[in-house]
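Reader question, answered in our methods column.
A reader sent in the components of a multi-part assembly and asked whether the whole thing could be modeled at once rather than chain by chain. We filled in our standard form and ran it. Here is what they sent:
COMPLEX SIZE: four components
ENTRIES:
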Amino acid sequence: MSDIFTTLASSVRRDILSMLKERDMTAGEISDKLTVTKPTLSGHLNILKSADLVVTERQGTTITYSLNTTVVDELLANLVGLLSSKDEKE
Amino acid sequence: MSDIFTTLASSVRRDILSMLKERDMTAGEISDKLTVTKPTLSGHLNILKSADLVVTERQGTTITYSLNTTVVDELLANLVGLLSSKDEKE
DNA sequence: ACTATAATTTGGTATTTAGCAAAATAACAA
DNA sequence: TTGTTATTTTGCTAAATACCAAATTATAGT
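And here is the structure of the entire assembly that came back:
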């Protein structure tokens, strides 16, 4: 729960998540859409993977990244728990 | 929208938001509950204020902090927009 | 004006993070 | 095994962030 927020603190990583929300993509395809170099992108992908927000599957020389929808849904539930409510007194 | 995530990246700031979710508190009261020094806390409160997540009201020498519930609700809506859905094809 | 209390600002150091180029690894084909 | 493509790891520098102590501001009481 804790490091998910630091994971989301980067706009590059948020952009990646938005793209993967639409469709699965290889690292190269993601790289084509962003301005950072491939090594930099690879670092971001690693962070997303460590946070369990994405999963990977290798097909030959390419690696396809996809959203881990289960964890993303959990994250949203946690966010709502963190910030909403407060309705106890009114 | 962008810097709200960097604002939430700090556990100290998330703790402050959780506390303010329960009740309004002065800077001193918040400080009593946390391990950081007052100057450090003041910096965090400034960041929360700049992100429009909290509002302040001075009463004499004390300053009371409260959640800006309007903006917090907007934030939650944006988060859901960023991460959920993807249901277009299924 | 003087003192006390609450909170913030200033100035500085240390840790973390993001970024790149160059080198390395993985899978495959010839 | 040599070469090619896709991706990652390594090594490094620059920028951002967090933290604290000391100094400062703001308000109220005497």
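What stands out: Confidence is low (pLDDT under 50) at residues 85-90 of chain A. The helical segments of chain A are 2-8, 11-22, 27-33, 38-50, 69-83.
Send us your own complexes using the same form.
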